[in-house]
Every structure is written in C-alpha cells, then in structure tokens.
Design goal:
The complex is a heterodimer of chains A (about 220) and B (about 300). By secondary structure, chain A is α/β, with parallel strands linked by helices. Chain A has one domain. Chain A has helices at about 45-60, 80-100, 115-125, 150-160, 175-190, 200-210; strands spanning about 1-5, 35-40, 45, 70-75, 80, 105-110, 130-135, 140-145, 160-165, 190-195, 200. The two termini of chain A are about 20 Å apart. Chain B has 2 domains: about 1-95; about 100-290, Histidine kinase-like ATPase, C-terminal domain (Heat Shock Protein 90, 2-Layer Sandwich). In chain B, the strands form 2 sheets. Chain B has a 7-stranded antiparallel beta sheet with strand order 3-4-5-9-6-7-8, sandwiched between helices. In chain B, strand 6 (about 245-255) and strand 7 form a beta hairpin. In chain B, helix 1 (about 5-20) runs parallel beside helix 2 (about 40-55) and helix 6 packs antiparallel against helix 9. Chain B starts with a helix and ends in a 9-residue tail after the last strand. The chains are: A alpha/beta (about 220), B alpha+beta (about 300). The interface of A and B includes residues 80, 91, 115 and 123 of A.
Chain lengths: ~220, ~300
Amino acid sequence: MSRGGALGREESSGNGAPSEAGRGGTVFTGAGFRISEACLYSHLLTRTTGRAVRLGIERELVDIAEPVLTLVDFRNVAIIDFSCADEIVARLVCDALARPDPPLRFYLFTGLDEHHLDPVESALRRRALAVTAERADGTPCLLGEAGARLRTACAAVSRLGRTTPEGLVPGQIPTREEARVVLEEARARRLLLRVAGQYVSLRAAACAAAGGGER
Amino acid sequence: MLDERGFERLVAELAEHTGGDREPERILFDARRVRWTSPYGLVGLLAVGDVARSRTGLAPSLSEPEASEVRSYWERMDFWQNAAGVFDLPSLSTRSHGESDALLELTPIRSHHDVHRVVERVRERAATILERRLHYPKPSVIQFSVMLSEVCQNILEHAEGDGWVCAQTYFWKERLGRDVLVLAVMDVGQGFEGSLAAEHARRFGDRWSSATALEAAFLNGESRFRDPGRGQGLQAIRRQVTRWDGEIRIRSGDAMIARVPEWDDLEPMITGLVPFPGAQILIVMPARIEAGDTP
C-alpha cells in the first residue's frame, strides 16, 4: 500500500544538474514522495522465506516513479533468524543503494523488539550498512555500521524532525561544512531525506505524509 | 556406547569394509550390544548407514539393540521411521511410540519447510526445557530457535544433500554434574572443504584441506558465496553457544573444529580423522549455574 507524501519533494544530489546523461536529470518530476507500508509476519526463518518477503516488498514499489519511503513493521515478527534478516533488511537497503538512478528508496524499520536486534545488527554490519529504525516503544535508533559523527547527526535530526546543517552547529557538529558533509552522507545512505533544503528524519516525513504531524 | 567416539569407530570400520578394490557387499550394523546412545550417535548411525548404502549400492542391514532402554530410546526418537529409508528393515519399519520426552525427535531436513516445521515443533518444549531445566532466561527460547534454524539451514545451503537433526536433554553426571541440552545435526553432502573450494581453495594453495575450510567458515565467517551476507549463520551460532558457555564441534572430511568451554578438555582442532562425507555438528548447552549452586 502506498500514499502520496505531503511534505514536499525529496531532492536528489547534484543541485539540479543531470547526474548521468540520458536519464532525464536528477530533479524528480513526480509528485513529491510516497509512503509505503509493509507489515511483516510471524516466523521469519530461512533465506528462502526472507527472499520471498523482500521480493514482495520490492514488487510493490516497482512501478512507482517517485521516491518512496517504506515503513517496515516488525511488531508481528515473533522470530527472525540471521539469514532472513540479511535477505530482508540488509538486502532491501543494499538494493536501494545499488539503484543506479532515481527514484530513491528509503526504509524505516519500526516495532523492533530486543530479540530482533542481534540478527538485524549482525546482517547490517556484515555489509557495512546502517538503517533508521524504531524500537517497539517508538524510540528511534540507528542500527548497523555507522561512525560516531553520523550517529550524532542522525540522532539530532531524529530529535528535531528536520534541520539544516546550521541547525547542528555548534552543539552537535563543530562546523557548518562538516555538518553538511555528514548530513549528505546520511542521506546518501538513505538514513534521512532532503526536502526543500532541509534534512528530514524518516519518521517526520512519514508523519507529515500521513497528515499526523511530526513526532 | 553409541556417542561421538562410537560414531568415529563406525566411520573407521565403514572405511575398512568399503575401501580398496573390494567387491561391494551388504554391510550389517550390529547394534545388539549397544548399551547407551546419544543424539549424536543416533544421527551418526543414520549418516554412516546412508554412506554405506551409497558406497556399496546395497541397503545395509541393522540388528536392533538388546537393551530395552536403548530400544525404547530409539523408538521414542523416531529412529526407525528415519532408518527405513536407509537400512534394509523389512520387519522394523512400522513401529510407533507414545509421547516422547525428547526436545526434538530425529527429523530429516530436506527443504526450508522442514526448518520451519522443526522450529515450530520445538517451541513449547524448548520453553519448558530451557527455562525450567537449564535455568536460561526467557529470551533464550527465541535464541535457541534461531540457532536451530541456522544450523539446519547449513545443511540446505552447503551440503547439497539431505540431513537430520535431533535434540535431547539429559544429566551429565560424570562430565559436568549438570543437565545439558545436546543438539546433533548431520548431513552426508559435500562437506566444508568441497563447499568452499571453488571460492577459497586457490587462496590457500597446498594448505587447502578440511581443516582450513573449517577454520575459514567457523572462525572467519567465510562461505562458498562471494556475497558478504552469507556465512553469518555459523558465526552467530558460535557467538550464541559461547554466551551459554556451551560447546560446539563441527566434524567435516578428516577434521574437526570446536569452540571448547573451560569445562571440557577437547582439542579445538583435530586433524587426521577417518574421512567422512558432509558435516557433523554437535552442540552442548549446559544448565546455567545460579548463584549459590555448587556444580
């Protein structure tokens, strides 16, 4: 299921100049971005199951021309093994990063319980990836491989909902340029969106799209 | 005793009877004098029987144990149902039994559906055994299920053949003075050396062997795939077993690698074993010593 985003347009890098010839430029022509929801089911065991789940999620997005933020809900997942976590979480992000051109794909993993963390963390770290996630009680967290500065920046954006590089200086990051670099890294790794010159947490984007305000 | 040592004896005798230019002949496994069987021994008997069958082209015979406790254990563990596809058992194949006290009876693993079934099957029993008997914390039930899933998937992903799993809890009076959960998983497929060869053998050159293949997979998380997401299952199992102060040993080809806890004096790497196909995994999880307990 997907619905249109109401926050604005997720911007691509390159300041509007075409990044690759023949691909129609880097400013999306679609209407902002979309929200998609994927509710995972109870027993996520084996690589075969994980592959089927991932392909199901990706199939839902295949014809969507705009950037999509998919909320992947773990609340009903009673058990997930390492192979399944790799096939679902790590491969979803891997595939999103590997897309050669827009539309961009973002994932926010929600409802994670204690017993989901080890398989998900382990799968992400093996591929040097990170994801934005939320614990079952709604607490935001960054899972996987990320340096201290990236974690600091993402935590700040998560707390603020949206910000500019200046918004992180000097409390979180020493200089504006360093803040811009780390926020761009976060965006390139699909940990947040950039909308109208602001960096927006995935949760804030989802809430705005739902018309429910930001947390 | 049909346990780890008993398995090694069977493997050695099988090699003796099927080596060289011998004419293939039907092999008889004489279990009449078996007085005790561990889960590893029971799965091992099936594995050795299966290899005997493939080496000779003839289904081996099996005489049943005389000791009633051993016979009863084999029946409760569903041995005969599984043995019917391996051994020539005209009169033994229809046996049934009442409720078993095993955590997991002998179960074949042929597809990912079997892995789901196995995990589902142990769920309630594992909760009772891990919490009440081994005094493990509540999350250990899920951790055990995840470990079970990964160890069974190892068969599907790497063996390219069928395998079996079974688990039982019992009291290790002499070795540990505590209850233990023993999990045995075996296949008779290509083994670690064969599975990893295409991707890793060249790098090791002359040193490539069952032992180096086991080290690559068990210690370094290598797999036969280039995909970095592969190979984490065994690593995760090793970490979990370590957290529980347990032991894991993996025998493959002519070598065995182990994570050895302080309570055992096993060598972490043994080479020069009699070659045997596939991989044979033994996991031992001891009861937790709670404050005030005397081991």
